Amino acid sequence: MKSITTFSLQYAHRFYGFKGEAQYLHGHTGIMTIEVEDCINKGVNMVFPCNEIKKTAWSVLKNFDHALILRSDDPLLPAVLDVYEKQGIKNGSPQNTMMGCAFETELAQAYPNCRLVVTKETMTVEGMIKITYELLKDKLNISKITFTSGDNAASEIFEVTGTMDRCPLCGIALDEHGKCPKCGYEKNK
Ligand SMILES: [Zn+2]
Ligand SMILES: [Zn+2]
Whose C-alpha in 77, 146, 150, 169 is 20 to 30 A from the C-alpha of 45? Predict the structure, then answer.
C-alpha cells in the first residue's frame, strides 16, 4: 500500500542554452507528489502519516520554495551573486526567515542564505525528480515522485526494497535504537 502527499513549490529558473522561451528567467508553481510504499503498520493502520512525509520532504525541499534555481555554468549565477553581494543580502538578511537546511549532493547544492539552488543539470521537471529522490531516498521508502510545473509534468517509479520499522502508536520511523523520536515509544521495552 502507499501513502501519498502533495505540496507546492514556487520558484524561478531558466533553461540556460535552450532554444525556446524558457531560456529567459521565469517563475512557476510546481506541484510535487511523493508516494511512500510499505506494508500497513498494524498499530496505526496506515503506511506512513502523510504530514510526516511532508515534514521530512519539506525540511530540504523548502530550499526550492521562493528561490532561484540556476545551473552551475549559467552566467546569470555570478551576476546574481554579485548583485546580492553589493546589496548586502548574499549571506542572509533579517527578512529571509523560512530557510531550509543547506544540502549538497551530486546534483544540486542549496544556499539558503540567499535563496539559491545551484544545479548540475537543467532544472526541468525530470531534473527536479532526480534531485528530490537523491535527497530523500535514505529517509523515506519512495516508490514514485511526480512533478508538475506549468505545462510540464514528469513522474518516475522507484523500486522499494525492504520495510521501515515504524512506531505502532504514531506511525513514524523508529530511530536506530528502536525508539520513536516523536512519542518516545521503545520497541525493545
Ligand atoms: Zn520553467
Ligand atoms: Zn511514536
Answer: 146
Q: Do β-strands 108-111 and 116-119 pair in parallel, antiparallel, or remain unpaired?
A: antiparallel
For residue 170, report the distance from its CA to the centre of ligand 2, in Å.
4
User: Residue 163 falls within a domain, yes or no?
Assistant: no
Distance 132 CA to ligand 2 centre (A): 26
User: In the structure, what pLDDT confidence band is assigned to residue 189 with cuts at 50, 70 and 90?
Assistant: confident
Question: Model confidence at 114, in pLDDT bands (50, 70, 90)?
Answer: very high
Closest ligand (CA of 167): 2
| Structural domain that includes position 136 | 2-157
Ligand 1 center–CA 13 separation, angstroms = 6
What the block records as the C-alpha cell of 104 is: 549538497
CATH code where residue 122 lies: 3.30.479.10
- 172 alpha carbon to ligand 2 midpoint, in Å? 6
